[in-house]
Design brief:
Elements (H helix, E strand, L loop, with lengths): L1 E3 L4 H5 L7 E4 L4 E5 L4 H16 L15 H9 L7 E6 L2 E6 L3 E5 L4
Antiparallel strand pairs: 1-4, 2-3, 3-6, 4-5, 5-6
């Protein structure tokens, strides 16, 4: 797990509204918004990765096999003066979760 406290231009450039899922072909990444509770964040990560990999969520390995979801949500949901981003690999994708309530999933290299 990589803790990166710098602001991501790709995340802010996406211009996501509430509960929006989108795709940015320039970055070859899909984006989703999530609330500050555990369930919404984990669901946003898993569903976005499933969409990017064209798989069903139940066909993915458990998220906890890659990252501690509870610790991840605690980190990005806590109130901070400086935004926090955590980037990790999951199911061949690069996943970035931000304290701004966004998840970005980059497609796996073909």
């Amino acid at each position: 797990m990589n803790d990166n406290t710098t602001e991501s231009d790709a995340m802010s450039a996406a211009g996501l509204g509430e509960d929006v899922v989108g795709y940015d072909p320039t970055a070859d990444a899909s984006y989703a918004r999530f609330g500050t509770d555990y369930t919404t964040a984990v669901v946003a990560i898993v569903e976005t990765v499933a969409a990017v990999t064209n798989r069903k969520t139940e066909d993915l390995s458990p998220l906890f096999a890659t990252v501690d979801p509870e610790a991840l949500v605690d980190l990005v949901a806590s109130n901070r003066d400086t935004p926090v981003e955590v980037t990790f690999s999951y199911e061949g994708c690069q996943v970035t979760v931000s304290s701004r309530g966004t998840v970005a999933v980059e497609s796996p290299d073909e």
